[in-house]
Amino acid sequence: MRNKNRKIEEKAAEGARKPIAAAPPSRGTKTSRNGVYLFSIAVFLVGFAVVMALFWSAMSVPLIVVAMAVGFLLACSIRIAPQWERVVVLRLGKFHRIAGPGLYFLIPIVEHAAAHVDQRIITTPFTAEEALTADLVPLDIDAVLFWLVWNPKDACVEVEDYAAAIWWAAQTALRDAIGRINLAEVATRREQLDCEIKEILDEKTRSWGITVVSVEIRDIAIPKELQDAMSREAQAERERNARLLLAEIEKDISEMFVDAAAVYDQNDKAMQLRTMNLIYESVKEKGGLVIAPSAFGEAFNNIEGFLKP
User: pLDDT tens for residues 246-282?
Assistant: First the structure.
C-alpha cells in the first residue's frame, strides 16, 4: 500500500513538473526571499554578539554554546514576512493566528510557523492526456490555471498540499468537461470550456480557501490518423457548398433567360434591339467587318419604321 501511494505521489509530482511548452524567458523580475534570510542571520549575529560582549571576561566553550543558543532563539522568535506572504502560526499544535506581512514574533517552542502562504496569482500548467470526448476520440490537451489563496488558514488546515490538490482537481475537471462534448465542438467551444472548468474548480476549491481566477486552454492535439480524415471531410464539405452555390447560380441564370425569352416573344422590337446590341458588341471587341448570319441582317430590315414611334 505504501509503495502504491508512493508511486501515485511520484506521478503527481512528475506531472506537476512536466513542462507544457518552452517557458518564457525570465527578465529578472522574479521576487526573492533573500531579505528574510538575511534578517534572520542578522538577528542571530546580534544575539550572539550581545551575549559574548556581556560575558567576555568569562570566555569559554560553554559561553560560546550559550551565545549561539541565544542567537538561535532570537532568530526563531523575531521574523519578517514579505508583502505578498502570510504565515500560519500554530500554538501547541492548534491554529492561533495569521501573521504578516512585516515583522512578527513567535514564542520559542510554544509557537511555530506551520506554513508560508504566497497570496499572489499562481500559474499552474496542467494536461489531460488521451481525454475522451463524447464520441470517444482521445485528445491531448494543454491548459493553464491561474489561481490564488485568499484564506491561508483553510488552505493549510483543510487540505494537506493545496498546490498538488488543485493540480489534480484541474486535470479531473478538464477531463469531465471534454467528455461532455464531441470532437467537432472542442475547437469552437474553447471559451465555454474555460468557463465551465473554472466553475467546477471554484466549487471544489472554495472550501480550501482558494479562488480560481481563470482557466485557459492552450493547445488541443488531435490524433494524426484523424487529422487526414477531418481534412478530407472539410474539403468535401467545401466542394459540396461550391457545387450547391453553382447550381443556385445556374438556376437563377436559367430563370432570367426564361423571363427574357418571354419578353422577346411578346415584343419583336425588343428582339431586334437585342440582335443589334450583339452585333455592336461583336464589332467593338473584334473590330473590322463582321460576317453575320442572315438572322442578324433581318434586324436591320425596316429600321426606319422601327425607329419611328
Answer: 888 888 888 787 777 777 677 766 666 667 776 767 7
Mean pLDDT to the nearest integer, 52-56: 87
CATH classification number, 122-222, choose in 2.160.10.10, 3.30.479.30, 3.40.50.980, 3.40.50.1820: 3.30.479.30
Task: Tell which phi-psi region holds residue 288, choosing left (phi > 0), alpha (psi between -120 and 50) or beta.
Answer: left
Instruction: Kindly provide the b/e burial profile for residues 173-194, where b requires at least 16 CB atoms within 10 angstroms of the residue's own CB.
Output: bbbebbeebebebbeebeeebb
Tell me which H or E stretch contains 166.
Answer: helix 162-178
Residue 208 near residue 159 (C-beta atoms within 8 A) = yes
Residue-range domain boundaries for the chain: 34-81+85-116, 122-222, 226-263, 267-309
Per-residue pLDDT at 225: 67
Q: What is the pTM of this model?
A: 0.62
Amino acid, single-letter form, for residue 191: E
